[in-house]
Design goal:
Largest sheet: 8 strands, mixed
Number of helices: 11
Radius of gyration: 21 Å
Low-confidence stretches: 1-65
Number of domains: 2
Order of helices and strands: EEHHHHEEEHEEEHHHHHH
Strand order of the largest sheet: 1-2-3-4-5-6-8-7
Strand content: 15-25%
Helix content: 40-55%
Length: 330
């Protein structure tokens, strides 16, 4: 994994955009050495896979091998959304305009996989952070799995953004405005609607001057509106069937041009490395074997692969394969 970091300019405070996951807690020197060795081994394997993909992507007459596309992952999945919206503020602007039904919104900056570090508690990694011409901050989250604590998670994300954006010495009347948007494949929190807007209100139904708003958008309800079409596109397993002209143009680049294929494969690589790292670190106490097992289970679940295909995909050694088979058979 790379360690490249970039900041949203000027006003994002301690928010960092990183290709890596949130910072991990300090471990003992011995455990740290074990984890570092494990991660290095995985990195070498994954780099070899990516090198082969880059070579294939340079040939226009071969079938693109990207696992995310082959397995039918949608735009609401991590590996596909990361590549699809990479350096594409106009696509992010399109989402926000359709969700809020406001064509006047102009996005002036955006970043992906933004990490907000909380030294005293839980940190977060946000899919997309954007700012419009008026300084309003937007957080867009792609959710392909069911979320049991959606409202609390959304509230926490908004709170973290608000705390990081509200500068020392600023007056409360200048409190920044935050909009959190969840695009939900299964439509939880939408109350049977295509889009549900949630804001704090008083007993008279007034919500004036509240700086935070939430939008939950359902991928389970489809209609012929522009927003409905967008959600159909985002839950479609075949990117060639995307209908919205703005998103279709991007899909064409991702699927048919060399640069698009390279972006997609690199995004999948970074995403996979994060999964592998998490799996290895979770297994650090029990040792290398459990880390490999956890890593294998994660890839099987998310990419829908068989056990044998997953072990081949991860380039496990024969000894590691046998260990994984034994562990999963019990």
């Amino acid at each position: 994994m790379t360690d490249e970091r970039e900041r949203l300019p000027t006003d994002i405070g301690h928010v960092e955009a990183s290709d890596c996951g949130p910072p991990q807690s300090d471990q003992s020197s011995e455990r740290g050495d074990v984890v570092s060795w494990q991660l290095s081994a995985v990195s070498r394997r994954r780099s070899a896979v990516l090198g082969r993909r880059d070579g294939m992507a340079d040939q226009s007459d071969v079938t693109w091998p990207c696992e995310s596309i082959k397995k039918g992952l949608t735009l609401l999945s991590d590996p596909v959304s990361r590549a699809f919206f990479k350096d594409e503020p106009k696509l992010v602007e399109r989402i926000i305009r359709l969700v809020k039904d406001e064509d006047s919104i102009d996005i002036v900056e955006m970043n992906q996989q933004v990490v907000i570090t909380n030294p005293n508690g839980h940190s977060v990694q946000l899919d997309i952070i954007a700012r419009d011409a008026n300084g309003k901050i937007y957080n867009i989250e792609f959710q392909s799995k069911r979320e049991k604590a959606l409202e609390r998670r959304a509230s926490f994300y908004a709170s973290m953004l608000l705390v990081n954006e509200f500068k020392s010495g600023a007056q409360y009347k200048d409190c920044p405005e935050i909009c959190v948007i969840f695009l939900l494949e299964h439509g939880e929190g939408c109350n049977g609607k295509l889009v549900e807007r949630v804001v704090p209100v008083d007993t008279a139904g007034n919500s004036s001057n509240w700086p935070i708003e939430f939008y939950f958008v359902s991928g389970a309800l489809h209609d012929n509106s522009e927003l409905g079409t967008m959600m159909q596109d985002f839950t479609c397993c075949d990117l060639t069937e995307i209908r919205d002209p703005v998103f279709k143009a991007r899909a064409t680049i991702i699927l048919n041009q060399k640069i698009g294929r390279k972006i997609m494969c690199e995004a999948e690589e970074k995403w996979a490395n994060e999964l592998f790292s998490d799996g290895l670190i979770e297994g650090r106490i029990e040792g290398h074997r459990d880390g490999i097992v956890e890593m294998t289970k994660r890839v099987m679940k998310i990419l829908g692969k068989t056990l044998e295909d997953t072990m081949a995909f991860l380039q496990l050694t024969d000894e590691e394969k046998q260990s994984v088979r034994c562990c999963l058979a019990t």
